[in-house]
Amino acid sequence: MLTANPNANPTTDDAGHGSTGPHSASQRAVVVGASSGMGAAIAARLADRGYAVAGLDLVTATWPEDSAAHHRIPVDVSDAGSVDRALGEAVERLGGLEIVVNCAGILGPVAPAVETSQETFAKIIGINLGGAFAVTRAALTHLLPAGYGRIVHIASIAGKEGNPQMAAYSASKAGVIGMVKSVGRETASSGVTINAVAPASIETPLIAGMTAERQQVQRSLIPMGRFGTVQEIAALVDYIVSPDASFTTGFVFDASGGRTTY
Ligand SMILES: NC(=O)c1ccc[n+]([C@@H]2O[C@H](COP(=O)([O-])OP(=O)(O)OC[C@H]3O[C@@H](n4cnc5c(N)ncnc54)[C@H](O)[C@@H]3O)[C@@H](O)[C@H]2O)c1
Questions:
Q1: Ligand 1 binding pocket mutation candidate from 31, 36, 78 (most atoms within 8 A of CB)
Q2: How many structural domains comprise the chain?
Protein backbone atom coordinates (compact mmCIF):
# COMPACT_ATOMS: atom_id res chain seq x y z
CA MET A 1 0.00 0.00 0.00
CA LEU A 2 1.36 3.40 -0.89
CA THR A 3 1.73 6.09 1.69
CA ALA A 4 1.99 9.08 -0.60
CA ASN A 5 0.62 10.39 -3.86
CA PRO A 6 3.66 10.63 -6.13
CA ASN A 7 1.74 12.66 -8.68
CA ALA A 8 1.00 15.33 -6.13
CA ASN A 9 4.37 15.28 -4.40
CA PRO A 10 7.49 14.62 -6.47
CA THR A 11 9.39 12.72 -3.81
CA THR A 12 9.94 9.03 -3.35
CA ASP A 13 7.79 7.34 -0.71
CA ASP A 14 8.52 4.32 1.47
CA ALA A 15 7.45 1.93 -1.25
CA GLY A 16 9.94 3.42 -3.68
CA HIS A 17 7.38 5.18 -5.81
CA GLY A 18 8.27 8.71 -6.76
CA SER A 19 7.71 10.86 -9.78
CA THR A 20 11.41 11.32 -10.30
CA GLY A 21 12.58 7.99 -8.92
CA PRO A 22 13.55 4.78 -10.70
CA HIS A 23 11.06 2.11 -11.70
CA SER A 24 10.00 0.18 -8.64
CA ALA A 25 10.16 -3.60 -8.73
CA SER A 26 7.33 -3.71 -6.20
CA GLN A 27 4.72 -2.77 -8.79
CA ARG A 28 1.87 -5.04 -9.76
CA ALA A 29 0.29 -4.92 -13.18
CA VAL A 30 -2.77 -6.29 -14.93
CA VAL A 31 -2.55 -6.57 -18.71
CA VAL A 32 -5.87 -7.25 -20.43
CA GLY A 33 -5.57 -9.04 -23.76
CA ALA A 34 -2.16 -10.35 -22.68
CA SER A 35 -2.08 -13.58 -24.67
CA SER A 36 -1.36 -11.95 -28.03
CA GLY A 37 0.13 -9.03 -29.91
CA MET A 38 0.79 -5.83 -27.99
CA GLY A 39 -0.59 -7.24 -24.75
CA ALA A 40 1.89 -10.13 -24.78
CA ALA A 41 4.78 -7.74 -25.50
CA ILE A 42 3.68 -5.33 -22.76
CA ALA A 43 3.36 -8.20 -20.26
CA ALA A 44 6.90 -9.29 -21.21
CA ARG A 45 8.30 -5.79 -20.87
CA LEU A 46 6.73 -5.22 -17.44
CA ALA A 47 7.81 -8.68 -16.23
CA ASP A 48 11.36 -7.83 -17.38
CA ARG A 49 11.17 -4.77 -15.14
CA GLY A 50 10.51 -7.09 -12.24
CA TYR A 51 6.84 -6.19 -11.94
CA ALA A 52 4.37 -8.92 -11.01
CA VAL A 53 2.05 -9.36 -13.98
CA ALA A 54 -1.43 -10.86 -14.22
CA GLY A 55 -2.54 -11.50 -17.78
CA LEU A 56 -6.25 -11.44 -18.53
CA ASP A 57 -7.73 -12.75 -21.74
CA LEU A 58 -10.64 -14.72 -23.17
CA VAL A 59 -11.08 -18.21 -21.76
CA THR A 60 -10.57 -19.44 -25.33
CA ALA A 61 -7.27 -17.56 -25.76
CA THR A 62 -4.19 -19.56 -26.69
CA TRP A 63 -1.34 -18.46 -24.47
CA PRO A 64 2.14 -18.69 -25.99
CA GLU A 65 4.50 -21.04 -24.17
CA ASP A 66 6.83 -18.17 -23.39
CA SER A 67 4.08 -15.88 -22.03
CA ALA A 68 5.53 -13.61 -19.36
CA ALA A 69 2.27 -13.34 -17.40
CA HIS A 70 2.78 -14.78 -13.92
CA HIS A 71 -0.96 -15.34 -13.54
CA ARG A 72 -3.48 -16.02 -16.31
CA ILE A 73 -7.07 -15.16 -15.61
CA PRO A 74 -10.03 -15.53 -17.99
CA VAL A 75 -12.13 -12.48 -18.81
CA ASP A 76 -14.59 -11.26 -21.40
CA VAL A 77 -14.37 -7.48 -21.45
CA SER A 78 -17.79 -7.17 -23.09
CA ASP A 79 -19.25 -8.45 -19.80
CA ALA A 80 -18.73 -5.94 -16.96
CA GLY A 81 -19.37 -8.60 -14.32
CA SER A 82 -16.63 -10.76 -15.80
CA VAL A 83 -14.25 -7.77 -15.72
CA ASP A 84 -15.04 -7.03 -12.07
CA ARG A 85 -14.46 -10.67 -11.09
CA ALA A 86 -11.24 -10.99 -13.09
CA LEU A 87 -9.76 -7.73 -11.74
CA GLY A 88 -10.71 -8.78 -8.23
CA GLU A 89 -9.01 -12.14 -8.68
CA ALA A 90 -5.93 -10.43 -10.11
CA VAL A 91 -5.67 -8.07 -7.14
CA GLU A 92 -5.99 -11.04 -4.79
CA ARG A 93 -3.30 -13.04 -6.57
CA LEU A 94 -0.93 -10.08 -6.98
CA GLY A 95 -1.50 -8.81 -3.44
CA GLY A 96 -2.39 -5.34 -4.72
CA LEU A 97 -2.43 -3.33 -7.92
CA GLU A 98 -0.75 -0.26 -9.36
CA ILE A 99 -0.98 -0.68 -13.16
CA VAL A 100 -3.77 -1.65 -15.57
CA VAL A 101 -3.10 -1.83 -19.30
CA ASN A 102 -6.04 -2.68 -21.54
CA CYS A 103 -5.14 -4.15 -24.93
CA ALA A 104 -8.31 -6.17 -25.53
CA GLY A 105 -9.90 -5.34 -28.83
CA ILE A 106 -11.16 -6.61 -32.14
CA LEU A 107 -10.96 -5.13 -35.62
CA GLY A 108 -14.21 -6.58 -36.96
CA PRO A 109 -14.98 -6.80 -40.66
CA VAL A 110 -13.37 -4.23 -42.97
CA ALA A 111 -16.44 -3.30 -45.01
CA PRO A 112 -18.47 -0.31 -46.18
CA ALA A 113 -20.79 1.21 -43.59
CA VAL A 114 -23.87 0.31 -45.67
CA GLU A 115 -22.85 -3.35 -45.47
CA THR A 116 -22.23 -3.29 -41.72
CA SER A 117 -25.13 -4.58 -39.65
CA GLN A 118 -26.30 -2.93 -36.46
CA GLU A 119 -25.37 -6.14 -34.61
CA THR A 120 -21.80 -6.02 -35.90
CA PHE A 121 -21.51 -2.35 -34.96
CA ALA A 122 -22.82 -3.04 -31.45
CA LYS A 123 -20.48 -6.00 -30.97
CA ILE A 124 -17.37 -4.01 -31.86
CA ILE A 125 -18.44 -1.07 -29.70
CA GLY A 126 -19.27 -3.46 -26.86
CA ILE A 127 -15.81 -5.02 -26.80
CA ASN A 128 -13.59 -2.07 -27.70
CA LEU A 129 -15.42 0.76 -25.93
CA GLY A 130 -17.72 -1.00 -23.46
CA GLY A 131 -14.78 -3.19 -22.47
CA ALA A 132 -12.50 -0.19 -22.00
CA PHE A 133 -15.08 1.43 -19.73
CA ALA A 134 -15.61 -1.76 -17.72
CA VAL A 135 -11.84 -2.10 -17.25
CA THR A 136 -11.56 1.57 -16.28
CA ARG A 137 -14.31 1.36 -13.69
CA ALA A 138 -12.99 -1.85 -12.16
CA ALA A 139 -9.43 -0.46 -12.14
CA LEU A 140 -10.51 2.78 -10.46
CA THR A 141 -12.35 0.82 -7.78
CA HIS A 142 -9.01 -0.68 -6.74
CA LEU A 143 -6.64 2.21 -7.50
CA LEU A 144 -8.49 5.28 -6.18
CA PRO A 145 -8.52 4.17 -2.53
CA ALA A 146 -4.73 3.66 -2.69
CA GLY A 147 -4.22 7.14 -4.16
CA TYR A 148 -1.86 5.91 -6.86
CA GLY A 149 -2.21 4.12 -10.18
CA ARG A 150 -1.63 4.03 -13.90
CA ILE A 151 -4.32 3.06 -16.43
CA VAL A 152 -3.50 2.81 -20.13
CA HIS A 153 -5.82 1.92 -22.99
CA ILE A 154 -4.69 1.03 -26.48
CA ALA A 155 -6.87 3.20 -28.71
CA SER A 156 -5.91 3.68 -32.39
CA ILE A 157 -5.13 6.33 -34.95
CA ALA A 158 -8.43 5.14 -36.47
CA GLY A 159 -10.12 6.90 -33.56
CA LYS A 160 -8.53 10.20 -34.59
CA GLU A 161 -8.68 9.96 -38.39
CA GLY A 162 -11.57 7.56 -39.02
CA ASN A 163 -10.30 4.71 -41.21
CA PRO A 164 -12.58 4.12 -44.22
CA GLN A 165 -14.59 0.87 -44.10
CA MET A 166 -13.95 0.66 -40.37
CA ALA A 167 -16.81 2.79 -39.03
CA ALA A 168 -17.48 0.72 -35.91
CA TYR A 169 -13.81 0.24 -35.08
CA SER A 170 -13.01 3.92 -35.64
CA ALA A 171 -16.01 4.99 -33.55
CA SER A 172 -15.05 2.62 -30.75
CA LYS A 173 -11.50 3.99 -30.60
CA ALA A 174 -12.71 7.61 -30.78
CA GLY A 175 -14.92 6.67 -27.85
CA VAL A 176 -11.95 5.32 -25.91
CA ILE A 177 -10.10 8.60 -26.51
CA GLY A 178 -13.08 10.63 -25.29
CA MET A 179 -13.48 8.43 -22.23
CA VAL A 180 -9.79 8.72 -21.33
CA LYS A 181 -9.95 12.51 -21.60
CA SER A 182 -13.08 12.66 -19.46
CA VAL A 183 -11.89 10.30 -16.72
CA GLY A 184 -8.44 11.90 -16.78
CA ARG A 185 -9.94 15.26 -15.86
CA GLU A 186 -12.30 13.72 -13.34
CA THR A 187 -9.49 11.89 -11.49
CA ALA A 188 -6.68 14.36 -12.10
CA SER A 189 -5.93 15.01 -8.45
CA SER A 190 -6.40 11.42 -7.31
CA GLY A 191 -2.89 10.08 -7.89
CA VAL A 192 -4.27 7.80 -10.62
CA THR A 193 -3.45 8.70 -14.21
CA ILE A 194 -5.34 7.40 -17.23
CA ASN A 195 -3.95 7.73 -20.74
CA ALA A 196 -4.32 6.19 -24.17
CA VAL A 197 -1.90 5.10 -26.86
CA ALA A 198 -3.03 5.61 -30.45
CA PRO A 199 -0.88 3.43 -32.70
CA ALA A 200 -0.92 3.32 -36.47
CA SER A 201 -0.58 -0.21 -37.87
CA ILE A 202 1.54 -2.50 -35.74
CA GLU A 203 2.73 -5.97 -36.76
CA THR A 204 0.35 -8.22 -34.84
CA PRO A 205 -2.16 -11.00 -35.56
CA LEU A 206 -4.80 -8.26 -35.86
CA ILE A 207 -3.00 -6.82 -38.89
CA ALA A 208 -2.10 -10.28 -40.23
CA GLY A 209 -5.86 -10.88 -40.48
CA MET A 210 -6.18 -8.13 -43.12
CA THR A 211 -5.88 -8.85 -46.83
CA ALA A 212 -2.46 -8.14 -48.38
CA GLU A 213 -4.05 -5.31 -50.34
CA ARG A 214 -5.43 -3.68 -47.19
CA GLN A 215 -2.08 -4.13 -45.43
CA GLN A 216 -0.38 -2.31 -48.31
CA VAL A 217 -2.87 0.55 -48.03
CA GLN A 218 -2.25 0.79 -44.28
CA ARG A 219 1.55 0.70 -44.71
CA SER A 220 1.51 3.38 -47.41
CA LEU A 221 -0.11 5.81 -44.96
CA ILE A 222 2.90 5.69 -42.63
CA PRO A 223 5.72 8.15 -43.51
CA MET A 224 8.34 5.81 -42.03
CA GLY A 225 7.20 3.27 -44.66
CA ARG A 226 6.82 0.38 -42.25
CA PHE A 227 4.52 -1.02 -39.61
CA GLY A 228 5.41 -0.47 -35.97
CA THR A 229 6.50 -3.32 -33.73
CA VAL A 230 4.93 -4.55 -30.53
CA GLN A 231 8.23 -3.84 -28.76
CA GLU A 232 7.94 -0.16 -29.73
CA ILE A 233 4.47 0.00 -28.18
CA ALA A 234 5.64 -1.88 -25.08
CA ALA A 235 8.50 0.60 -24.61
CA LEU A 236 6.08 3.53 -24.75
CA VAL A 237 3.64 1.91 -22.33
CA ASP A 238 6.56 1.08 -20.03
CA TYR A 239 7.15 4.81 -19.66
CA ILE A 240 3.48 5.77 -19.30
CA VAL A 241 2.94 3.29 -16.45
CA SER A 242 6.11 4.34 -14.65
CA PRO A 243 6.13 6.61 -11.60
CA ASP A 244 8.12 9.04 -13.79
CA ALA A 245 5.02 9.74 -15.92
CA SER A 246 3.40 11.68 -13.11
CA PHE A 247 2.23 14.89 -14.83
CA THR A 248 0.33 13.43 -17.78
CA THR A 249 -3.26 12.27 -17.63
CA GLY A 250 -6.18 12.24 -20.04
CA PHE A 251 -3.68 12.25 -22.88
CA VAL A 252 -3.31 10.32 -26.13
CA PHE A 253 0.24 9.22 -26.93
CA ASP A 254 0.76 8.64 -30.64
CA ALA A 255 2.92 5.87 -32.06
CA SER A 256 2.41 6.25 -35.76
CA GLY A 257 5.71 6.44 -37.65
CA GLY A 258 5.01 10.07 -38.46
CA ARG A 259 1.42 9.56 -39.64
CA THR A 260 -0.29 11.53 -36.91
CA THR A 261 -0.22 15.26 -37.45
CA TYR A 262 -2.46 16.35 -34.58
N1 LIG B 1 -2.34 -4.09 -34.55
C2 LIG B 1 -2.56 -2.84 -34.91
O3 LIG B 1 -2.12 -2.38 -35.96
C4 LIG B 1 -3.32 -1.92 -34.01
C5 LIG B 1 -3.29 -0.55 -34.28
C6 LIG B 1 -3.95 0.32 -33.44
C7 LIG B 1 -4.63 -0.17 -32.34
N8 LIG B 1 -4.67 -1.51 -32.09
C9 LIG B 1 -5.38 -1.96 -30.90
O10 LIG B 1 -4.42 -2.53 -30.00
C11 LIG B 1 -5.07 -3.50 -29.17
C12 LIG B 1 -4.25 -4.78 -29.22
O13 LIG B 1 -4.33 -5.28 -30.55
P14 LIG B 1 -3.31 -6.34 -31.14
O15 LIG B 1 -2.95 -5.83 -32.48
O16 LIG B 1 -2.27 -6.69 -30.17
O17 LIG B 1 -4.35 -7.53 -31.42
P18 LIG B 1 -4.40 -9.06 -30.98
O19 LIG B 1 -5.55 -9.62 -31.71
O20 LIG B 1 -3.06 -9.67 -31.12
O21 LIG B 1 -4.73 -8.94 -29.42
C22 LIG B 1 -5.99 -8.58 -28.95
C23 LIG B 1 -6.27 -9.38 -27.70
O24 LIG B 1 -7.57 -9.02 -27.20
C25 LIG B 1 -8.18 -10.20 -26.77
N26 LIG B 1 -9.63 -10.02 -26.78
C27 LIG B 1 -10.46 -9.89 -27.85
N28 LIG B 1 -11.72 -9.80 -27.45
C29 LIG B 1 -11.71 -9.88 -26.09
C30 LIG B 1 -12.72 -9.88 -25.10
N31 LIG B 1 -14.03 -9.77 -25.42
N32 LIG B 1 -12.35 -10.01 -23.81
C33 LIG B 1 -11.05 -10.13 -23.48
N34 LIG B 1 -10.05 -10.14 -24.37
C35 LIG B 1 -10.39 -10.03 -25.66
C36 LIG B 1 -7.74 -11.26 -27.76
O37 LIG B 1 -7.93 -12.57 -27.25
C38 LIG B 1 -6.27 -10.89 -27.94
O39 LIG B 1 -5.44 -11.52 -26.99
C40 LIG B 1 -6.49 -3.63 -29.70
O41 LIG B 1 -7.35 -2.84 -28.91
C42 LIG B 1 -6.40 -3.04 -31.10
O43 LIG B 1 -7.63 -2.51 -31.52
C44 LIG B 1 -4.03 -2.39 -32.91
A1: 36
A2: 1
